[in-house]
Amino acid sequence: MRRCFIAGNWKMNKTVAESLALVRELRGAVSMVRDRVEVAIAPPFTALQAVAKALEDSNIGLAAQNCHFEGSGAFTGEVAAPMLKEVGCSWVILGHSERRQYFGETDEGVNKRIGAVVKAGMLPIVCVGETLAEREGGKTLEVVTRQVKGCLAGYSAVQGEKFVLAYEPVWAIGTGKTATSRQAQEVHAHIRMLLKEQWGAGVADQVRIQYGGSVKADNAAELLGMPDIDGALVGGASLKVADFAAIVKAKG
Ligand code: PGA
Asked: The dihedral of CA 203, 245, 67, 105: what is its sign?
């Protein structure tokens, strides 16, 4: 059985003080799902260390929103995976469409970043998803196939077993438009088929695939009810305690 995994991507929001205020409320609001649902939050880099402390003895894990693929070096403005591990991260979101769209990140770069994350002792949440033009051009599965294969190339079944993937149709991110549960399920099933080709049925069956893109309290239950949707990567709604808590509790 795949354990439902809800992660909150705070993007470029919240100062340290604001992050701590949000975490204080969040801890209580999601504590009751301890066994059934895995929960993580991804604050901005500046707040990670303080948030890690504030999360001690809670059931909320800590994720970063990106990292560089080298362990250290002359890369002004970048943050390395071992630095994230040191401040308490267990997860790193990689290949988010905003990284791809605004910062030119590619599947090849994500592939290298996964290596850095794993080497540092953390796990990746690997994001894939098509744009509106690609969906309308009937290219969704082709694009997602290229992204999944490109990002995961070279990683073994033993490593991949614990990776998390996130299907985030770009047209649904921050737009209020959600993929229907059927549209999402179709792509999730396709991704699981790709994982099966690469790592075999046993591993493909264990890897969790989150859905992301305007997930809200009122659509979470339906999305999470689909057979291949194992959680959610939540942007906007993760900044509001009541909304995020309702999503965390949405799975029956
Ligand atoms: P959204 O963002 O929930 O605000 O659409 C999702 C994401 O970008 O991970």
From this structure: positive
Total of domains in the chain: 1
Give, in order, the Cα–Cα distances in Å from 72 to each of 155, 198, 237: 22, 31, 34
Q: Is the pLDDT of residue 251 over 90?
A: no
* Token output for 136: 């309308």
Q: For residue range 159-212, what is the model confidence (pLDDT) as tens digits?
A: 999 999 999 999 999 888 888 999 999 999 999 999 999 999 999 999 999 999
State residue 48's pLDDT score. Answer: 98
Residue 232, domain CATH: 3.20.20.70
3-state secondary structure 85-140: HHCCCCEEEECCHHHHHHHCCCHHHHHHHHHHHHHCCCEEEEEECCCHHHHHCCCH
Q: Of 68, 96, 105, 134, which residue is the catalytic one?
A: 96
CB atoms near residue 59 (< 10 Å): 17
**To test ligand 1's pocket by mutation, which of 9, 13, 65, 131 has the most ligand atoms within 8 angstroms of CB?**
9
Range of the domain at 22: 4-249
